[in-house]
Prior knowledge:
- By secondary structure, the protein is an alpha/beta fold.
- It has two domains: 28-154 and 283-314, Rossmann fold (3-Layer(aba) Sandwich); 156-282 and 319-343, Response regulator (Rossmann fold).
- The protein is built from twelve helices and 14 strands.
- Helix 4 links the parallel strand 3 and strand 4 (116-120).
- Helix 2 runs parallel beside helix 11 and helix 6 (156-170) packs parallel to helix 7 (185-201).
- It is globular and about 60 Å long.
Amino acid sequence: xxxxxxxxxxxxxxxxxxxxxxxxxxxxxxxxxxxxxxxxxxxxxxxxxxxxxxxxxxxxxxxxxxxxxxxxxxxxxxxxxxxxxxxxxxxxxxxxxxxxxxxxxxxxxxxxxxxxxxxxxxxxxxxxxxxxxxxxxxxxxxxxxxxxxxxxxxxxxxxxxxxxxxxxxxxxxxxxxxxxxxxxxxxxxxxxxxxxxxxxxxxxxxxxxxxxxxxxxxxxxxxxxxxxxxxxxxxxxxxxxxxxxxxxxxxxxxxxxxxxxxxxxxxxxxxxxxxxxxxxxxxxxxxxxxxxxxxxxxxxxxxxxxxxxxxxxxxxxxxxxxxxxxxxxxxxxxxxxxxxxxxxxxxxxxxx
Length: 352
């Protein structure tokens, strides 16, 4: 009798373990998913872009009970091998961060068709016979995009425009500037929007900008910011990871005004918070989370999904310490610009 009881008890335990292993966190029957994030060279603690993407992953895995890991790319030659590492470890979803990872992501997505990929800031319109698609577009792509890749895009020119309205409304010298990273489309969209927004509120404003071919060169960013401050700039927009952060530092140390980028840098970069009027925020964390939520619900699709003012995917961060110092007239112009950009009455001036 005792032996029979032990056998039955053992069987019940085994059954319960099997059920627990098969039950998905969201109530489905799929196994626990593994999510990998490959950062760009800025690293996961860049106080802006990569950090925000990882926050989105963390929120999703916490909610859905998945596993997640990130790998930091130290240089562009790391991109493909970092993706390979996740692929060989049987990860279900790989999120790649940034425009610079466009080619590597497409190559590896084709190599690993059973893995789902999402990339931030790169939409796929490759040409025939490119490295990405050596046969024909028809063989590699479905309606212009890789079949297992979702592109998470942002209209940086819109929020850059609002940052420019703020800067143009606050400058005392009549000169504003931006310390930018690499001259790639997302960064250019920020800069063009910023300059045109400033001119919209203050037509005679002088705008300065320098592109620096790095996202990790804080000293060069600071030096560049100091140079433009020497030319009269009193509002510095840092656009380019840790390189742009150097420009924010330059403004902070001179007791001038600054505008952050990608996330609310008042919260992520406390060393410069006193100088920050606001930040031109891309809700990268929300975009990544929403994509992973769609994966959890089996509603994710390949293609391009764009975040903008119309769907609250971009926007100015709170003014924080500067809220009482920004004139209501400037706030009103920001509100006007926001409404007119949403309706299409106002254009940012960015042309692809």
